UniProtKB/TrEMBL annotation:
GO cellular component term, pick one: plasma membrane
Record-linked InterPro entries: Chr_Tranpt_l_chain, Chromate_transpt
Name of this chain's protein: Chromate efflux transporter
Alphabetic keyword roster: Cell membrane, Membrane, Transmembrane, Transmembrane helix
Pfam families the UniProt entry points to: Chromate_transp (PF02417)
Molecular function terms from GO: chromate transmembrane transporter activity
Listed transmembrane segments: 15-40, 85-107, 119-139, 151-182, 202-222, 234-252, 272-291, 298-320, 332-352, 359-376, 382-398
Phylogenetic placement of the source organism: Bacteria, Pseudomonadati, Pseudomonadota, Gammaproteobacteria, Oceanospirillales
Subcellular location: Cell membrane
């Protein structure tokens, strides 16, 4: 595929349009955060041209570097770029809603997703094909010379050798430093530094609010079991987690299991249910909030969801203007090129585990994914047709 050079369309997308697009993604995006990123790239870079390749990758790099759910932060940022604050709210609420509602129902006693296993397996196969398509396209566009290929390979090696929540941060920071040293030929026009569409003062306010709430959450003066305590407990977990949804589990366990709010059995049951729904892993908070607040489970789920997602969004709002400011400095284009290459390496590692390891379990699965990938990458078929094909295959294999 040739490099994506088409310019983004103007930033005037209505709230309802953003909401409906992200709702569809929230209903179909199985496979974890890396698969979500692949879906976002195909939807907003390849098909709708809302973002350029470089702007998308810069947003992704920033979200990978910050604590919180990277794919949800990326969706929120895309929504803001297209529709301002309301656009960000539309993107977050729509992408989160399906999995949050399903996990709330599970907490209320709907204990099985009856008959959905074949459908879920079909959607996992779609995720493998979508991520493979996104990864190959990004590698061609962002690692087109030897220097950036070396940076991507070093990021892959680092993640493979040091599998911790901090390794992603080290890889992105290392990519920036290597880019500064090796990618001197990069220019600001090539890297297209992104510009947030809000006043920098909003970033300062968001940063101060993030820090203030974090300080209060570390003290958490509210009694255990109250809504204030629930909000701050989940806020602390969302503010301190690096590396994605699975890394937040120990923090949540210490907040709700060790304190006796949720039994270990109920916690593990909810975690298992979270694996079977689309959307972000952080919506596990919906289940926990409902289990903790049995007298008003919907309110408990809502408070927990807001608490765990809010810190990542506040930090993102605070950091984006700083990124624009840093772009004025010499050498920033080279650093961005290095970061982009490192992000390709991160995606390559995550493509293998968990996307491939959880999606492909047989040679038949491999054959279905191959057909889906060819349809997406070579034939450029609409993703919806490929999704329907994989769902049909999953259902037929489950008969």
């Amino acid at each position: 595929m040739s490099e994506n050079t088409q310019q983004p369309t103007p930033e005037n997308t209505p709230f309802l349009t953003i909401f409906l697009i992200f709702l569809r993604l929230g209903l179909t995006s199985f496979g974890g955060p890396i698969a979500h990123i692949g879906y976002f790239r195909r939807e907003f870079v390849d098909q709708r041209h809302w973002l350029s390749e470089s702007t998308f990758t810069q947003l992704l790099a920033i979200c990978q570097f910050l604590p919180g759910p990277a794919s949800s932060q990326l969706g929120f940022a895309i929504g803001m770029q297209r529709g301002g604050w309301l656009g960000g709210l539309a993107a977050f609420s729509a992408f989160t809603l399906p999995s949050a509602v399903l996990l709330l129902l599970f907490a209320l006693g709907v204990n099985e997703f009856v008959g959905l296993t074949p459908l879920i397996q079909g959607l996992k196969l779609v995720a493998v094909a979508v991520v493979a398509d996104a990864l190959l396209s990004m590698a061609r566009n962002l690692c087109s010379d030897r220097q950036r290929q070396v940076i991507a390979l070093m990021a892959i090696s680092l993640i493979a050798l040091i599998d911790t929540s901090w390794s992603q941060l080290i890889a992105v920071a290392g990519g920036a430093m290597l880019g500064f040293a090796l990618c001197k030929q990069a220019s600001l026009s090539q890297t297209e530094i992104l510009t947030p569409n809000y006043h920098p003062r909003s970033g300062v306010i968001a940063g101060a609010l993030f820090a203030g709430l974090l300080m209060v959450s570390l003290i958490n003066p509210f009694p255990t079991g109250t809504h204030g305590n629930l909000f701050l407990s989940f806020y602390e977990a969302g503010a301190l987690v690096f590396g994605g949804g699975h890394v937040v589990l120990p923090l949540l366990e210490s907040a709700v299991v060790d304190t006796g709010l949720v039994s270990s059995e109920a916690y593990l049951a909810g975690y298992g249910a979270a694996q079977a729904v689309p959307g972000p892993m952080f919506t596990f908070a919906s289940y926990l909030g409902a289990v903790i607040n049995t007298s008003s489970p919907i309110l408990g789920a809502t408070v927990a969801l807001i608490g765990i997602f809010l810190p990542g969004f506040l930090l993102l709002i605070a950091v984006l203007p700083l990124w624009k400011k840093a772009a004025e400095h010499r050498g920033m284009a080279a650093m961005v090129s290095g970061v982009n290459a490192a992000v390709v390496g991160l995606l390559a590692c995550a493509f293998y585990d968990p996307v491939i390891t959880s999606g492909i379990t047989s040679m038949i699965d491999f054959a279905i994914v191959t057909v889906a990938f060819v349809a997406l990458h070579l034939w450029r078929m609409p993703a919806m047709w490929v999704i329907l094909f994989c769902i049909m295959c999953g259902v037929l294999l489950g008969l």
